[in-house]
Amino acid sequence: MLMEKTYFRKILLIDDSPEFSSMFGKFLKRHGYEVSKAQDGLEGLEKARLEKPDLIILDVMLPGMNGHKVCRMIKFDQQLKKIPVLVLTARMSEDDEQLAFQCGADAFIVKGTENNAILAELKKLLRQSIDNHLEAT
Q1: Of 35, 34, 56, whose CA–CA distance to 45 is shortest?
Q2: 8 A C-beta contact, residue 63 and residue 41
Q3: What pLDDT score does 1 carry?
Q4: φ/ψ of residue 64, rounded to 5
Q5: Nearest 5°: CA angle at 94, between 49 and 92?
Q6: What ranges do the domains of the chain cover?
Q7: What global pTM score does this model have?
Q8: What does R_g of the chain's alpha carbons equal in angstroms?
Q9: Residue 4: predicted pLDDT
Q10: What would the pLDDT profile of 90-128 be if each residue is shown by its tens digit?
Q11: Predicted local distance difference test score (pLDDT) of residue 25
């Protein structure tokens, strides 16, 4: 697991709530992750293209372009499609979860879930990303 400690640490957090982004960003940084933030869908998509993060945490309810559309665009982009997308949202209907997966999300978690449970899912997605990277090389 040395690779996990050295690589695959950049996370792009796309959420329109400055309070949530600040709090959750600090939590991720305390756990050794490098965090970049975007407050709307278009900015998030631009940052994803520029920064090529190792994982994207994406809210659904975003100004400009909603999270489902952002996720779909990420998964159709040849350079971004392998980046895991964790949808983290206050919306908790089964329809929202189903739509997130139809758009290509790799995980769906409702805000309010304990941070350590979110961290465990995030680590699982990053491990899968490492495995996919190793298989491709």
Answers
A1: 56
A2: yes
A3: 39
A4: 85, -70
A5: 70
A6: 25-118
A7: 0.90
A8: 14
A9: 43
A10: 988 889 899 999 999 999 999 999 999 999 999 999 988
A11: 96
Token readout for 118 is: 């979110």
| The pLDDT of residue 123 | 93
The CATH class of 25-118 is alpha beta
Residue 61, both tokens: 């309810």
Work out the burial of residue 85: count CB atoms within 10 Å of its CB; fewer than 13 is exposed, 13-18 middle, 19 or more buried: buried
The pLDDT of residue 2 is: 40
Q: Show the tokens assigned to 82.
A: 């392998």
Directed axis angle between helix 94-102 and helix 67-76, to 10°? 20
pLDDT lower than 50: segments of the chain:
1-6
SS (H, E, C) the chain: CHHHHHCCCEEEEECCCHHHHHHHHHHHHHCCCEEEEECCHHHHHHHHHHHCCCEEEECCCCCCCCHHHHHHHHHHCCCCCCCCEEEEECCCCHHHHHHHHHCCCCEEEEECECHHHHHHHHHHHHHHHHHHHHHHC
